[in-house]
Amino acid sequence: MTESDNNNPITVQQSSPETSVQSWVPVYKQLENEIKLRHYSPKTLKAYRTWTRQLQGYTKSKNYQNLSQQDVIDFLTFLAVERKVSASSQHQAFNALLFLFKQVLKKEFDEIKGVTRAKRKPYIPVVLSRDEIDLILDHLDQPFNLIVKLFYGCGLRISEGVNLRIRNFNFDTGILTIHDESNSRRINEGKKDRTVPIPQSIVPELQEQLRKTTSLYEADLQDNFAGVFLPEQLEKKYQNAAKDYLWQWFFPAPTLTLIKDKKEYRRYHLHDTVVQKAIKKAVSSAHIIKRASAQTFRHSFASHLLQENYDIRTIQKLLGHSDIRTTMKYTHTLQRKTIKQAKSPLDFISEGEHDE
């Protein structure tokens, strides 16, 4: 039977003892509905679904209507003690299960007590030298070469790089605007936009990419395509935006995607997995011994700015960090001077006077 309460549309099976094994299919369907209702990102849905599945396995698929807060406490402790997950992973699991209880199962969720906390391990990001970056770039063809230059030159996340649209670039002012187009959220982060300077050294390459994108767009119009993909709420707000020039992807996928139910073709951006594979291959070909990925170029951007004595607050804004503590991790990538190598401030003054 189905509960009449509209706040809990999950189908409940009759005579389901607490210890019985039960299908959780309705849970996953409702989880997806609640995520889409709030316009959270696909990555959030994937993460929340993963932690829900792990809880299901831990409880041996017990009747989800009989799940208790103690099940969550035991599971989070299991993650820390047995699985030895990181503190951030345990925190992510907590957020996912909090959402599951409150928004999907419609259960009360009081303050969690008695959970064994996962140990926080010091995290030092992998940083490449400028020579290593140049070497990797030498092994990348277009458009991957240009995408990586934006990762490093602007401190972009991989999702921000592949999601760039023509409207993000203002070549007159030399500014690249990173829009959070949807209400989708990175886990534990809010919606925010930011601006970063466009590296002037790659403007000619960016304009060449723009010409290629424009040519592809004009060809798509001739073929009467349905436009590019847009977040659902933007599609409703700007009904003609999918075919609008400014909303076209800056790095479009080489082929169109068929939407079967609508029988129309749309253009998607270059997929992030394709970019990651290209970077992995280039790192291997360049014989770089560090574990470098797309995120490594963002790490290098921050670390190199610190080396040039940029203010940590400025770097925080350029990276789009909401918490300064996230940015502070890059201070650990700088080479420390020993006491013997350090100089007294009095010596700085003396050297300055001597130079005069």
Structural class by helix and strand composition: mainly alpha
What is the strand tally? 5
Instruction: Please outline the major beta sheet.
Output: 3 strands, antiparallel
Question: Residue-averaged pLDDT, rounded?
Answer: 84
Oligomer: single chain
Which residue ranges are poorly predicted, with pLDDT under 50 across at least 5 consecutive positions?
Answer: 1-9, 11-19, 182-190
Gyration radius (Cα, Å) is 25 Å
Order of helices and strands: HHHHHHHEEEHHEEHHHHH
Shape summary: globular
Q: Which percent bin holds the helix content? A: 40-55%
Strand content: 5-15%
Strand order of the biggest β-sheet: 1-2-3
| Total number of distinct structural domains | 2
Q: In angstroms, what separates the terminal alpha carbons? A: 89 Å
Give the count of helical stretches: 14
Quick recap:
The protein is mainly alpha-helical and about 350 residues long.
Description:
The chain is mainly alpha-helical. It has two domains: 1-121, Tyrosine recombinase, N-terminal domain (DNA polymerase, domain 1); 130-280, no CATH class. It is 46% helix and 7% strand. The chain is built from 14 helices and five strands. It has a three-stranded antiparallel beta sheet with strand order 1-2-3. Strand 4 and strand 5 (264-269) form a beta hairpin. Helix 3 runs antiparallel to helix 4 (87-104). It is globular and about 60 Å long. The N and C termini lie far apart (89 Å). The model is unreliable at 1-9, 11-19 and 182-190 (pLDDT under 50).
